[in-house]
User: Fold these one by one.
Assistant:
Number 1:
Amino acid sequence: GAVVSQHPSRVICKSGTSVKIECRSLDFQATTMFWYRQFPKQSLMLMATSNEGSKATYEQGVEKDKFLINHASLTLSTLTVTSAHPEDSSFYICSAQGVNEKLFFGSGTQLSVL
Amino acid sequence: RKEVEQDPGPFNVPEGATVAFNCTYSNSASQSFFWYRQDCRKEPKLLMSVYSSGNEDGRFTAQLNRASQYISLLIRDSKLSDSATYLCVVGGKLIFGQGTELSVKP
């Protein structure tokens, strides 16, 4: 089946630093990728929709200047958490949309900001 | 009303039990529906798509009721390995429900 690779799987960083997370579709081309955030015991919250070659569409309440998304190719989307703070600590997951709207997920990135 | 709402959990059932989850959605124009399974701190994995006519995959049966705007997932003969959080997903914006936690006990 389709594979989506996400890394790093875990990041621990100091407050104020920026963190980049990569999401790659390994065996298919994904014009659309999604970025989610998940806090403990809660569901996935869609942060933004990333479209290849165009600006990402952010959900209400998500700061576009804080969470920079780049989807420069059909197989790679990146999320950069700029000037991370402890409240940004969360589990971030990407997904790529395949045929028939099925979503294939990366394995997630656990971000801990000290 | 939330766009997608699931049965609150957790569901604690013994091995071999049959358990059903419901998920309601607010957008009557939605066309695609899925059930995903998520293990703790892991990515969600597609369990099954939900078709208008209903579909079955082994011990799992998914159904769609457009009139009442809900989808359901039935798990028969529960196994310990079925313990997870089950997420319903409604397209086209692929909105996730909050998840229903299932714990199967020996």
Number 2:
Amino acid sequence: AQRVTQPEKLLSVFKGAPVELKCNYSYSGSPELFWYVQYSRQRLQLLLRHISRESIKGFTADLNKGETSFHLKKPFAQEEDSAMYYCALSEGYGQNFVFGPGTRLSVLP
Amino acid sequence: SAVISQKPSRDICQRGTSLTIQCQVDSQVTMMFWYRQQPGQSLTLIATANQGSEATYESGFVIDKFPISRPNLTFSTLTVSNLSPEDSSIYLCSVWDRTSYGYTFGSGTRLTVV
């Protein structure tokens, strides 16, 4: 069965510092991986998907199939990045999602 | 991307009663998903609702407790029945959004059972 792990429940960094939110997965097929973000008092929203290889709000994430990882990175954290981040895996187009436990990022001034 | 309206946004319910949550999408979608997020936990899929057929429930969730309706391609309801304090959670609906190639979520319903 597919599984997503995010080892850090809470990650605190100072403004301007680099940040990396870790995500590892286990899945025998070719997964589709996503990062979702939930800002305080807002709904869960899509941040990144691996197939797009895009940079959103300065965040990037690279799928490493050898290490089964999809870590989220940003070179210079901003205070407005403080939020809950969820890594998620889908078996394919429109298929069931499995969410990781989430990491709360706190960017300190 | 798809816009989802979910209501109520929150409710406080007595034990033994039921709460029905509504989810309206501004476009037609084949599948709608219902999730539960317990306090301090991640999201867990309850069931997948397809229009015109019975919902498909995940392990640990049963139709008697979480009946779902899907009368058309833009609307679904989830009922949480015979409420107990353990049902206190946030419930979210979600759809697969082809335009953004990702899942879009409703704003959630925060249920407190007293």
Number 3:
Amino acid sequence: DTEVTQTPKHLVMGMTNKKSLKCEQHMGHRAMYWYKQKAKKPPELMFVYSYEKLSINESVPSRFSPECPNSSLLNLHLHALQPEDSALYLCASSHPPDRNTGELFFGEGSRLTVL
Amino acid sequence: QQQVKQSPQSLIVQKGGISIINCAYENTAFDYFPWYQQFPGKGPALLIAIRPDVSEKKEGRFTISFNKSAKQFSLHIMDSQPGDSATYFCAASRTQTGANNLFFGTGTRLTVIP
């Protein structure tokens, strides 16, 4: 069983809706990630938080807004999404760069469908 | 630009056979090479990983072979089982600097036939 918990597992939203994806980990990791995965493709990095500060933003459109309220939680706020944003959104965690062992632990993902 | 190249795209193996998936990379700064296994509708799970100071790592039926001079590494699944049917991703990262940004290969869909 994964130690990175994502909710909801499935989300259907219209293009005018505002919703959020949530991620929680209790492994003491201080780096957390959002990845997007389309069908039959590898995960693509969206955002990285290190010590609760945004350290990497891979040129993601502003309709995706990440938030890291504390060291255990990571949110992804969604607004005015497009149908092409439908994908599996994966959260991951790891030790931060100064303690990095390389291991990245993924949650089971939130399947997003935009109508 | 694909930092990590993976082949084959799909693989069909008989039960009990050996599954072999290959990856190649260009960036010599990479120092961590994991393999992830992903079942449909699930997140990727770390299967096995290797660092460039060793040429081989074995965990149960799974073995990584690493060739630093050729900048290649491969996953061998011995005695393949139907339960191994999944998509496998190789990856590479630099753990020395920056966040752990994994560069994934394109994935291999493995089907093990009973």
Number 4:
Amino acid sequence: EPEVTQTPSHQVTQMGQEVILRCVPISNHLYFYWYRQILGQKVEFLVSFYNNEISEKSEIFDDQFSVERPDGSNFTLKIRSTKLEDSAMYFCASQQGVHSYEQYFGPGTRLTVT
Amino acid sequence: AQTVTQSQPEMSVQEAETVTLSCTYDTSESDYYLFWYKQPPSRQMILVIRQEAYKQQNATENRFSVNFQKAAKSFSLKISDSQLGDAAMYFCAYRRVMYSGGGADGLTFGKGTHLIIQP
């Protein structure tokens, strides 16, 4: 069964450094999402991406964040200058089409900022 | 803006018993989806069950069923014959229906309910 994959599974970085989190969505899916879950808290929507551009973004998704689909398979989330409060689990999800109800989640990347 | 509220931070149930997890939501939309996701200790998000708001019939998936009360904006999850493998965080989530040319909304999640299964 096709699945969403994410790399790395765990990333440790120093405050102020740039990080890139990578996702490979399911191949025939058209909509892509990033979510964040700070430890012990709820999952929060960051951004959605469709047709090679951002479709929607939340208040959390400020100028330090960016997303890209550099080729036909990868979908990346870049954090330019990490802060301690960026430590969280980051989930990628993909959805087949506009009438699809299910978003398929990847296993997540745990980001630790020290 | 839509909100999702789960008022039970933690629930405990004996193995083989039935448990109900509560969820309420607030929205001005008439077309939307509601979901229950399970998050085991591995932290993978797993879809348990979904409900389309236009459907009056409550969704069921094997031992999992929902009680969807649209007027009351309530969406509870019932787990029958609880098993040890059901132990996890359960998140209620909302998403409005997408239309061609519209935005791709993300899911709005509640804070979750930690379900403990007592052997």
